[in-house]
Amino acid sequence: MVAMNFDINYTSCSYLFFTFITIFLLHRLFSSSGSHHRLPPGPRGLPVIGHMHLLRSSLPRSLQALAHTYGPLMNIRIGSLRVLVVSDSDTAKQILKTHDPDFASKFVFGPRQFNVYKGAEFFNAPYGPYWRFMKKLCMTKLFAGYQLDRFVDIREEETLALLRSLVEKSRNGEACDLGLEFTALTTKILSKMVMGKRCRQNSNIPIEIRKIVSDIMACATKFGFMELFGPLRDLDVFGNGKRLRSSIWRYDELIEKILKEYEDDKSNDDGEKDKDIVDILLDTYNDPKAELKLTMNQIKFFILELFMASLDTTSAALQWTMTELINNQDILGKMREEIKSILGNTNRLLKESDLQKLPYLQAAIKETLRLHPVGPLLRRESNRDMNINGYNVKSGTKIFINAYGIMRDPTTYKDPDKFMPERFLEVEQNTERKMSYYQQYMLELKGQYVNYLAFGSGRRGCLGASHASLVLSLTIGSLVQCFNWTVKGDEDKIKIKLPTGFSASGTAGGSSLMCSPELYFDPFAHQTK
Description:
This protein is of the alpha+beta class. It contains 17 helices and eight strands. The strands form three sheets. A four-stranded mixed sheet has the order 1-2-6-3. A hairpin with a 2-residue loop joins strand 1 and strand 2. It is a single-pass membrane protein. Its cofactor is heme. It is found in: Membrane.
């Protein structure tokens, strides 16, 4: 057993506890006596813990249930964290559309006090000059359409590598762990997009990145309880802060070496067509005419944020889509027939250029993300006083938008808990301007309509939605085209673990899977693209 580096006895612990209680009650007394503005309704809370006793293992589901009693705008306190919870699309529209600039900041929930790159964050940065500059850089260069087109070879090559790996497992009669396969896939794709030049020289970089990011995420998720009690937030009682700092320093050592190698290779610049994300960031860093001068710490942490935001979310979305398809073989069959209708009974592999012709594939992915959003609670913070639904919302108010609850609203979606891709094929007709299904699909995926929030909406919507959609569509389409899928053993469906914490849908992929190549398809013939 590891010894703690400080002593704490019963008396001091009791003193700390009662001091905290006294400060908390005095704060509540004075803050409530001076507050006459009309607050949204909410359940009666308890001292210190607030409404934690009403919240079951899954926070989004618990908030959805409470909203049935207290309405679409609800006042909740989780420990010292007081938030307003938005649970319907009409109220969400006011936050994400009507008053979007006034809610363009995100409140921070997590152990930022242990981050060695303090003040360098972009994803959780306040709405200000740095955030606006980086958002523009993302939209016009880093994740612009032409830049994503440059990465098509990376996505197709890594998808082919996944298919080859599964073929080998099928040959040997081995079970498939799609969770591990999808994690490797998403890590390799993003690593090559971000730092492709270094990955071509060192194939171990994606593995190193994934290990470090996994360690950082594992440490960060252990702070949940302490974060809910303000005075305890900075106490590293269990040593997680020390481990988190250590993991971030390991990342810093790796990324420092990679960035130095990029700087040293500037003399061998291959031109615009070969630029990856690190190239663009360093060009911006060295540009004397840039609107805002980036620091090296901001570049380092932005790259880390990309990996933390993308790897687990994309992998989870892939797992959930395959889980729903395997558990609903009739839908999987319809998707395969759609792919056959485009490609015919040939052994030509699906390509990204085919995806716009596959509306049922897009609908199935969209339906999966509706049922199992990887970001079920959207965080916002008001930057001025305003009125929402007749209630006064003061500047600095923290907001949870329950995307999970909104996308399972029975007034919007018939049979909201049922996996039914057809629902998105029945109403996809834009009345103002003719557009293809795929164009409509991308608009909705990016939160154009607030009853669908799989990738958020407004200024803080997910910047990687287009990239994620391409990875999801190509990977799922290829797995359906090439293989038949069954659950190993006596089970006929994939087991789903119960949800906990911020998760709304549990965990997919609890079962071992067996795959066998489709009869008409000969994957062994494909040695090149």
